[in-house]
Write a structure and sequence with these properties.
- The chain is built from 13 helices and 22 strands.
- The chain folds into three domains: 155 residues, FAD/NAD(P)-binding domain, CATH 3.50.50; 108 residues, FAD/NAD(P)-binding domain (3-Layer(bba) Sandwich); 121 residues, 2-Layer Sandwich (Enolase-like, domain 1), CATH 3.30.390.30.
- α1 runs parallel beside α8, α3 packs antiparallel against α4 and α3 packs parallel to α6.
- The protein has 461 residues and is α/β, with parallel strands linked by helices.
């Protein structure tokens, strides 16, 4: 079996790469260990967003889980192997292992190719906390197997996954405790994000324990002799927490088990992710890596973009395309949502950045709906060679709002296309929409808007 392109992994990055190969007229094989669609479809984005929506609408636990299952079924139907075969992609189910730079083994069958794209994804990481592995703990992979809502739930980790599921389960009736070792939740975001979201979660009954490191997990006995699910969690500087179930959301690890990348000359970084350059090429000149396994941005839409870029670079004869992480927006689907694209204020301070800040309490649509938890924070900086003419250029934005995941795309477009900040400030936005906040915050870079004006980055609020 010889191909022009073999894609290993059928998640978002792998699907995009396989389709890109066929569009270029290349004989393409997609190798996937399990159903095509990957984590996002079956255990990640799709079921979690359906659960969050159902919980927010007041559904009961069974109804919410059924809603998540229905969403998975519908979306997975459009990603089945037969769909790809009809599009011209050959699909082989099995576990791949590199034999050399030009050959893999798929469950004993040799497959050769001129070029490969590795898109094997990532999986929930389980930290080496004493006692944790002896407990029947939950992760974002197996939480969907629950038959009933636990009365008490501890979420280890206050990142995006932890906060999303903590809020959803609290709304479904669980008494939730979030334990985060760092000083605040959502530590990858601007510090103002944690202030808002910790307040929202506490108001909804979630106990937030930030700055407390878990030192030991003590399984509480099971009467049936099965692996225990209940636990007493011991933390530094705090009282133990006893819960029926423990959900681990402390990050993700790359999936390279059994792949044997060294046999192909593919190097891994210190964390175990496949190391690539800006063009997604690995240390092996005919192998590219995309998606979560590449350790850049672990988002479905980022993986999709990487898949198309990698195949274009693999077969293109013209100038290669870089993967620009700063152009990729991301969203944490809590309520309110948290959205981000580009640089943070700290990152922009050294570039002479300016910051505009607008609390939702000053946005008429938010006031009308009584949804004033949140803000818009936008950063601009000088543009070469015109400096701050027309506002320079947009460097980044962080939004916390009920529709932040939709609002962020104006800023993503501005970063990608180089739109001047003045264009956003002068574009008429309909009143009273959430989007009008974009025009209002951008105006601060040019005039005082209702007592607010942009300030230098790093100068404080």
């Amino acid at each position: 079996m010889d191909f022009d392109l073999v894609v290993v992994g059928g998640g978002a990055g792998g699907m995009a790469a396989a389709r890109a190969g066929v569009r270029r007229g290349k004989r393409t094989l997609l190798v996937q260990d399990g159903p095509v669609g990957g984590d996002c479809t079956f255990t990640g984005c799709v079921p979690s967003k359906a659960l969050i929506a159902a919980a927010g609408a007041g559904a009961g636990f069974s109804e919410a889980m059924a809603s998540a299952a229905r969403a998975v079924k519908i979306i997975a139907a459009g990603e089945e192997a037969e769909v790809f075969r009809r599009e011209g992609v050959e699909v082989l189910e099995g576990r791949a292992r590199f034999r050399s730079r030009n050959e893999i083994d798929v469950d004993g069958q040799a497959v050769g190719a001129d070029r490969f794209v590795v898109a094997t994804g990532a999986a929930p990481a389980v930290p080496p906390i004493p006692g944790l592995r002896e407990l029947d703990h939950l992760t974002s992979d197996n939480v969907w197997d629950l038959q009933e809502c636990p009365a008490t739930l501890a979420v280890l980790g206050g990142g995006a996954i932890g906060c999303e599921l903590a809020q959803a389960f609290a709304r479904l009736g669980a008494r939730v405790t979030v334990i985060e070792a760092l000083d605040h939740l959502l530590s990858k975001e601007e510090p103002e994000v944690a202030t808002v979201m910790e307040g929202v979660l506490r108001r909804e009954g979630v106990e937030v324990r930030a700055g407390q490191k878990v030192v030991r997990v003590e399984a509480l006995g099971s009467a049936t002799g099965a692996t225990a699910t209940a636990a007493r969690i011991h933390v530094e500087g705090g009282e133990p927490v006893e819960v029926e179930r423990v959900l681990v959301a402390i990050g993700r690890r790359p999936v390279t088990d059994g792949l044997d990348p060294a046999a192909a000359g593919v190097e891994l970084d210190q964390r175990g992710f496949v190391e690539t350059d800006d063009y997604l090429q690995t240390s092996a000149p005919n192998i590219w890596a995309v998606g979560d396994v590449a350790g850049k941005l672990q988002f479905t839409h980022a993986a999709d973009e990487m898949g198309r870029i990698a195949v274009g670079n693999a077969f293109g004869s013209f100038r290669k395309r870089r993967f620009h992480a700063e152009r990729i927006p991301w969203v944490t689907f809590t309520d309110p949502e948290v959205a981000r694209v580009g640089l943070s204020e700290q990152e922009a301070a050294a570039r002479g950045g300016q910051v505009a800040f607008l609390p939702l309490s000053e946005v008429d649509r938010a006031v009308a709906e009584d949804r004033t938890d949140g803000f818009l924070k936008v950063i601009v900086g000088p543009r070469w060679p015109t400096g701050n003419l027309a506002g320079g250029r947009v460097l980044g934005a962080t939004l916390v709002a009920p529709r932040a995941g939709e609002l962020i795309h104006e800023f993503a477009l501005a970063i990608r296309t180089g739109i001047f900040p003045a264009h956003l400030a002068l574009t008429v936005h309909a009143y009273p929409t959430w989007s009008m906040a974009v025009q209002k915050v951008m105006g601060q870079f040019f005039v005082e808007v209702e007592g607010r004006r942009a300030r230098p980055a790093g100068a404080g609020g």
